[in-house]
C-alpha cells in the first residue's frame, strides 16, 4: 500500500544537486524514518515530499495523484508537515496555534464550526495540552512547545504527517515523550508518519521502515532489523561500531567505537600497574 511515492526525483538549490534520480515509496500506515549524515539531503527530501520544494526533475505522487497538480488545500487535507524549529508569533496561545491547523477547511462562506472545535479539542487531548491551552507558546518548555506544534498538525486531520527532526534540542526524557506520542498516534489511527531523526538507536526502536541516504541516493531501505549493520553505519556515517540488539525491544542497537572512557580498559590498566609495583 502506498501513500507517498517519489519517482526519478532530483532536488537541489541553484546549480547544486542534493538528491539525484531518487525513487522511494513510503509505506501506508507505518512510521518511516530518514537517516544519514549531515547535509545528505534528508530534510530536503522531506520538504519536497510536502511540496515545499519544487523538484528539478521527476515528481511526487500523493495517494495516487501528482502532488504538483493538486490544489494547495487538497494537499493540506491529506498531508501535514512540521518543520524543524518552527516559530510562532509572539503572544500566540497554544489553543490559537492549534486552531491554525483547521485553516485548510476554511472558505469564504464557511465559519468556525462544531467540527473544527471537536478537531482542536481532540488534538489538545491527544497531546496532553488541555491544561496549557491558554498559555502562550513562547512561554512553554521545549518539550511542551513541540507538543503544541504536533497538536496543530493533528488538528489538520491528515492521514500523513511529516516531521523534520522533531526531537532536536530536547533532553532524553522529552525525546522519548514525543516519539511515544507519535508511536501511539500511529498505533491508534494508523497514521502514516515520516520523520528525520539523528539518533540511530531511536530510529531503530520506533520505525517500521528506515531509509538511509548517502551520496544523493538511497543507500538502503527496509525494516531496521533487516538493514542496520556495521557496514551500513560505516558507509553512511563513516563511523566504526558494533551492532547488537536492544535488550528491551529487540531492535538493532549501535554501539559506536571511539575514545571515551572505558571501564574495562581502565580496570586492566590498573591491575597491570599494581602488578608492576608489587614486583
Automatic annotation (TrEMBL):
Residues 4-240 form the ABC transporter domain. InterPro entries: AAA+_ATPase (IPR003593), ABC_transporter-like_ATP-bd (IPR003439), ABC_transporter-like_CS (IPR017871), P-loop_NTPase (IPR027417), Siderophore_ABC-ATPase (IPR051535). It is found in: Cell membrane. Keywords: ATP-binding, Cell membrane, Ion transport, Iron, Iron transport, Membrane, Nucleotide-binding, Transport. It is a peripheral membrane protein. Signal peptide: none annotated. The keyword Oxidoreductase does not apply. Pfam families: ABC_tran. It comes from Saliterribacillus persicus. GO terms for biological process: iron ion transport. GO terms for molecular function: ATP binding; ATP hydrolysis activity. This is Iron complex transport system ATP-binding protein. GO terms for cellular component: plasma membrane.
Amino acid at each position: 500500500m502506498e501513500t507517498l511515492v517519489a519517482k526519478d526525483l532530483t532536488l537541489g538549490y541553484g546549480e547544486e544537486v542534493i538528491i539525484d534520480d531518487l525513487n522511494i515509496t513510503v509505506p501506508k500506515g507505518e512510521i518511516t524514518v530518514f537517516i544519514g549524515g549531515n547535509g545528505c539531503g534528508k530534510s530536503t527530501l522531506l520538504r519536497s515530499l510536502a511540496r515545499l520544494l519544487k523538484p528539478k526533475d521527476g515528481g511526487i505522487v500523493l495517494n495516487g495523484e501528482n502532488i504538483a497538480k493538486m490544489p494547495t488545500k487538497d494537499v493540506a487535507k491529506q498531508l501535514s508537515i512540521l518543520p524543524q524549529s518552527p516559530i510562532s508569533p509572539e503572544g500566540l496561545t497554544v489553543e490559537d496555534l492549534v486552531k491554525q491547523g483547521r485553516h485548510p477547511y476554511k472558505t469564504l462562506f464557511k465559519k468556525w464550526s462544531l467540527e473544527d472545535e471537536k478537531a482542536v479539542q481532540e488534538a489538545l487531548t491527544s497531546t496532553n495540552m488541555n491544561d496549557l491551552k491558554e498559555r502562550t507558546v513562547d512561554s512553554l518548555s521545549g518539550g511542551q512547545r513541540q507538543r503544541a506544534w504536533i497538536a496543530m498538525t493533528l488538528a489538520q486531520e491528515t492521514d500523513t504527517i511529516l516531521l523534520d527532526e522533531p526531537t532536536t534540542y530536547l533532553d532524553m526524557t522529552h525525546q522519548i515523550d514525543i516519539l511515544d506520542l507519535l508511536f501511539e498516534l500511529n498505533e491508534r489511527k494508523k497514521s502514516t508518519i515520516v520523520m528525520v531523526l539523528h539518533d540511530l538507536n531511536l530510529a531503530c526502536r520506533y520505525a517500521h521502515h528506515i531509509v538511509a541516504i548517502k551520496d544523493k541516493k538511497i543507500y538502503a531501505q527496509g525494516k531496521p532489523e533487516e538493514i542496520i549493520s556495521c557496514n551500513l553505519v560505516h558507509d553512511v556515517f563513516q563511523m566504526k561500531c558494533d551492532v547488537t540488539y536492544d535488550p528491551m525491544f529487540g531492535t538493532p542497537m549501535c554501539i559506536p567505537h571511539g575514545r571515551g572512557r572505558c571501564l574495562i580498559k581502565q580496570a586492566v590498566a590498573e591491575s597491570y600497574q599494581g602488578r608492576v609495583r608489587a614486583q
